């Protein structure tokens, strides 16, 4: 079976007044995500025109690595429990390189 890297593009629209809380969570989330065995990179960006928009660009060695990331304690504790409740909208696109 041919395993392909999985590239994740996520767009978080943070609820007005909550951006500082989300930004405070990102360093720990990024550090722990980058330390995962199957993580290739984890980058976070803030929109230049709308500071309540956060874009994430991540890559994982394969589906197993992505699953491990989503099931990790730091993902569950930081993203699911702390960040998602502060989002107005969340879009996640999974891709592979051509």
From TrEMBL:
Keyword Lyase: no
A GO MF label: monooxygenase activity
Key words, A-Z: Monooxygenase, Oxidoreductase
Native organism: Pedobacter miscanthi
Protein name (database record): Antibiotic biosynthesis monooxygenase
Superkingdom field: Bacteria
Domain ABM: 6-98
Any one GO CC term of the record: cytosol
Pfam families: ABM
Keyword Oxidoreductase part of the UniProt annotation: yes
Lineage: Bacteria, Pseudomonadati, Bacteroidota, Sphingobacteriia, Sphingobacteriales
Coiled coil location: none
SUPFAM superfamilies: Dimeric alpha+beta barrel
